[in-house]
Amino acid sequence: MPVAEAAAASPDAIIIGAGIAGMYQLYRLRQLGMRVKVFETGSDVGGTWYWNRYPGARFDSESYTYGFSFSEELLQDWSWSEHFAAQPETLRYLNHVADRFDLRRDIQFNSHVRAASFDEATRQWTVTLDTGERHQARFLITALGPLSADTLPRLPGVDRFRGQSFHTYRWPEAPVDFAGKRVAVIGVGATGVQVVQTIAPLVAELCVFQRTPNWCTPLNNRPISAEEQQRIKASYPELFALLRTTPGCYIHDADPRGTFEVTAEEREAFWEKLYGEPGFGIWQANFRDILTDPAANALLSDFIARQIRRRVQDPVMAERLIPKCHGFGTRRVPQETRYYEAFNLPHVSLVDVHETPIESITETGIRTSDTERAFDIIIYATGFDAITGAFDRIEFQGSDGLRLKDKWAEGPKTYLGLQSAGFPNMLTIVGPHNASTRCNIPRCIEQNVDWVTDLLRTARQQGCTRFEATPAAEAEWTAHIDTLAEGMMYAQINSWATGINTNVPGRDVRRILQYQGGAPAYRAHCDAVAAQGYAGMVLE
Ligand code: NAP
User: Fold this and answer.
1) pTM over 0.90
2) Does residue 59 line the site of ligand 1, with CB under 6 A?
3) Which residue range forms the structural domain that includes residue 174?
4) Whose C-alpha lies nearest to ligand 1, atom 36?
5) Less Cβ crowding at N or C end of the chain, within 10 Å?
6) First to last CA, the chain
7) 469/135 Cα distance (integer angstroms)
8) How many domains in the chain?
């Protein structure tokens, strides 16, 4: 559509992305009476849950803590079938939300945004799609998702393989037939773990290529009984009030005791109990110092290592599966269901790619330094250029031609993780330096979106056509982010949370990308800024 034509029908705001964040932001801006246009690469709503259709994909936070909280009718209307729902159910839920609130009429699907630039003269953003189609709006809201820039390994031959191969994020809609197949899985993060445990019983041969093992703990999932369903539905207000008090908006909160304030027997019994309970308790409801005191962390890591040795029959295999270079919980903990038992199956093997690196993908399989193996299917569970990667893949240009990519080359600089100086009228939901990427994410998305909505309401009421974070406020927030991460063990570890990705040039230096002060403190910061008439921002 030519610009002039598009301008005639210009929306007030453009949202990029129709996942959980984009959907809720659309709903809220409509309530303000704003005209909104959403652009979405996929052919339907759902974001993360639209793309990640790989076998075994499911929640790792409790289903009823994950859904939207803004509508009591929606909460009562929807019944989750399991404590940790699988991806098809979550996608059905998000479709149900889209139908219920008639969201699709403002979403343009199959529309990938290539560039977005701000024009000072008109105080408008122009968004350009892959097709060349352009659209303008006063406000631009990114809802890109923190884990949406998928990355394949930088290995020779990735495109030469003649069998089937998929990155888990690009999983096809049509079912993949695993029966009788020789399958390779590269990567053992939370995604690889879910894939491995799910397909192991289905395939003829499974070979897992592991570079860094992770500390995985049992999900202990089960169906929700009728009585539980009733209890859950009757207690949503209390549940969401509780979630507002915990650092990650999970149902679990840290135990106030220190690891060494109890006897060895009490400690062991406590850890046994947490290991047997559903969900993230062993990570989030553990002693308060497990992620800051290396001695406490070492003890806990030893406990988990013993569980792995107990569950894996072959001692050599067990040792390979036990992380040696990082402590428990310093990387995101994959939640598993009989993952370790998969390695007891005679047709499942494990290749340590530190010992025998992958040299290339061949037409028929994978060549490591010692041998070549043939496969019918290769699954790349190799992760993402996390948090900032999706921003880098769009050409964002602010005032005076400033490119976001250049500005953030040494690490993001933001105000509240929601704005960046030099990019007026742009808001980054679930952006870097924001509490949301260490959060039971819909809870933090709702906070981000509500804050953005209040800002746009105020801007409207004041007749403001341009707002921007000041460089001073941005510098102060960015320094605050760095300070909060000091003394945290995770900050010394390579993972997506510290911005490391060996498959992306330049992503080999750790960066502080997340707000580490916990969601309640983050919310208080955002609320204080709003209460002070948007301190640290200039509203014109
Ligand atoms: P990830 O945690 O970054 O894991 C990627 C894996 O691929 C790692 O094991 C990595 O090894 C390996 N890898 C990457 N490039 C490789 C190469 N060239 N050669 C060999 N191995 C390579 O990504 P993810 O598993 O997709 O998970 C990302 C995040 O998504 C999770 O941490 C979690 O927050 C979220 N997630 C959530 C759920 C859920 O249950 N709700 C499920 C899946 C994912 P290194 O560790 O050595 O780099």
Assistant:
1) yes
2) yes
3) 152-215+329-383
4) 190
5) C
6) 31
7) 24
8) 2
